[in-house]
Amino acid sequence: MTIHEVLQKYWGYSSFRPLQEDVINSVLEGRDTLTLMPTGGGKSICFQVPTLARPGICLVISPLIALMKDQVENLKAKGIKATAIFSGMGKREIDIALDNCIYGDVKFLYISPERLQNELVQERIKHMNISLFAIDEAHCISQWGYDFRPSYLKVKVLRSLHPEVPILALTATAVARVATDIQEKLEFDLQRSQVLKKSFFRENLAYMVLFEENKMQRLLRISKRTPGSGIVYVRSRRETKEIARFLIMNNIKGDYYHAGLTSLERSQKQDAWMKNKTDVIVATNAFGMGIDKPDVRWVVHLDIPEHLEAYFQEAGRAGRDGNKAYAVLLYNEADRLKLKSSFEQSFPSVQEIAQIYFQLGNYYQLAYGAGEGVVFDFNLGDFCRRFSLNVTKTIASLKFLEKDGWITVSENVFLPSRISFEIDATELYRFQVEHVNMDALIKVILRAYGPAFDHFVDIHEGDLARKLNTHPKHIVSLLQQMHDMNVLSYLKQKDNPQLQFLRPRSDTGHLEIDRHYIRERKLVAESQLHAIFNYLDDGQCRSRKLLAYFGEDAEADCLICDVCLLKNKGKRLEEVEANIYIELTHLLATSPLTLDELVAGIESGNEKIKLDFIRKLIDSGKIKMNNGKYYQKQ
Questions:
Q1: Could you give all domains of the chain from N- to C-terminal order, each with its CATH number?
Q2: What percentage of the chain reaches a pLDDT higher than 70?
Q3: 0.85 cut: is pTM over it?
Q4: What is the 3-state secondary structure (H, E, C) of 498-524?
């Protein structure tokens, strides 16, 4: 099939989005290609279409297990064979998946960078008919980027496994320095490589940055005045629940989302929002990756993001359908101080990192010299409570320990129970005859899930128990017995992050920590902090500022951000204040009002201008206060 026939058959589109066809043709010509495409630009199409248009497998590197699982399920729903290998899977399960890629008709293999470091996995990849390597979230390979992952540095091993196979690196956010670093780290053939970039300019997205003391009232006004789906981003899990409750109490269909929820809860909440049963989702940054909802009308940040890369991705989830949408960042002076404090806590001392490592060993009761390769379920909250640790410093310490090769920590992801029969159909029948107590269960499994002889299938112990009118614990017991008898492989459900010790436990005196790397990361983070603070300042078109940060020159102002709107109305500050004074006079004509009521009732100007002008009027004596309410002097 041609690439257009593939697009029509599997996605139902007759034409590609901007840049997609250029990227596809580039990799089909065998070129190493770096693609810079904003959130919602359709990056996955760029490697999925060319893979389906020719023989061979596409090996996709992705750091996000949840995103891998979603893409595999989406491909399977289209009738395309795909599989994934990531943390939490058993050795036998991985072995079967790799065999299917070598001998079967699998078209897409998704693999985490950590799994790629396994020599056995590398050896099996050598025997696959690979047509393309796709490196998703490619900025993770650069230590100058905002989300550096040490495991990504090993991705270049793919070049030695299949030297002639082109590499497609994809990212939504990369400044010039990071883009260069990506190409160097992946050993691009610079004679034949290409960098293809879609403009980051979003003509339909209005960026608003508002100084706001009463964020909740402002959020309420945005929710009520801007119909359609919305996302509210906050820093803490606690805030997601509190703000969702506030919205619901004010008759807005809201819900909350964070990584601490079970996978079933996350799936249900996300599904309700996608189907517009919920209007507003209040979430941490765990929400949004891989979600393609075109009709999001607004995204509000109630906290200052750590860097512009994250802000651009999260804000970019609004208005993907091309219609007018808003990205609103609400902040006050306390937020600046909190972000500075968070920055400092993100760079613990070498002694503090060593102490975290020591406490990890105690937490899992590992003896010195033991633990290499051992994987544990990891509960960050419980670990921090046990040793009275600061969460931000602990997370940072784990990342530095990961970079130096002491541990790896995977994201939490739901893996249902899985089984695969280890004997053939004839032997299984003989086993059923000899073990009558297990016969009924085996028959139900075969009817419900099919013959799982050369692959693992997901099972649900509760469903099996209902069909056999017994207790789930009894089902678990029978499955475990068959596992112990080598009749089947039984992998129990998981829903926790995984922590693996990569080396034997060391004493703190022999713990090697790269101090130079920590200093470099701090310099990068410091420049990102300055950039986000610069973005908050008024004076220049918001869109221009964002584009400049990503190395793109805007031909003109966007005309729709808060700065442009103020400028293009031709109003100087005095004119805005004059309008505020007229509105304020009308508001106070009938009865005194609280400060919140005053600010909410004034349409002209932003929050900061309103508050500053009201203070002027108070200082000049034109407005007086009595019992917490303001009135105009007659």
A1: 3-197 (3.40.50.300), 205-331+538-553 (3.40.50.300), 340-413+496-524 (1.10.10), 417-491 (1.10.10), 569-632 (1.10.10.10)
A2: 97
A3: no
A4: EEEECCCCCCHHHCCCCHHHHHHHHHH
